Amino acid sequence: MADPISDFFEDLSQRKHDPRLSHVTATVRFDIVDGRQTDSWRLVVRDGQLEVEPGDGAADATVTAERTVFEGLVSGTVNAMAALLRGELLLEGNANLIVSVQRLFPGPPGGRSPRTIPAKAGASS
Hints:
CATH architecture: 2-Layer Sandwich
Strand content: 25-35%
Number of domains: 1
CATH topology: Nonspecific Lipid-transfer Protein, Chain A
Low-confidence stretches: none
Shape: globular
Structural class: alpha+beta
Distance between the termini: 47 Å
Mean pLDDT: 88
Number of helices: 4
Order of helices and strands: HEEEEHHEH
Helix content: 25-40%
Largest sheet: 5 strands, mixed
């Protein structure tokens, strides 16, 4: 059975670079809680270059979530900022990183990027 969380981090690892994070240099640890077990992943970003590794360790920010919440993040059915405000995500460290890292999670299924929505007639750019 496929694990959406492992698949998400594997995809990030394969990407190697994300231009949306070209201004970010930081390490973010994700602690995913499933009952008594916690799985950790570290994301190291250096000017948009991505390195992903399983395991815990020092980080500029740590994001902690129940497995079901994190599965929602990686599937696009849960928004990271909304989950943070609801207390479903816990953040320790540099709070600004959640805004940047949120860009790595997919949008809602069937949603469209603002860049793909045609401008209204008569609207100026």
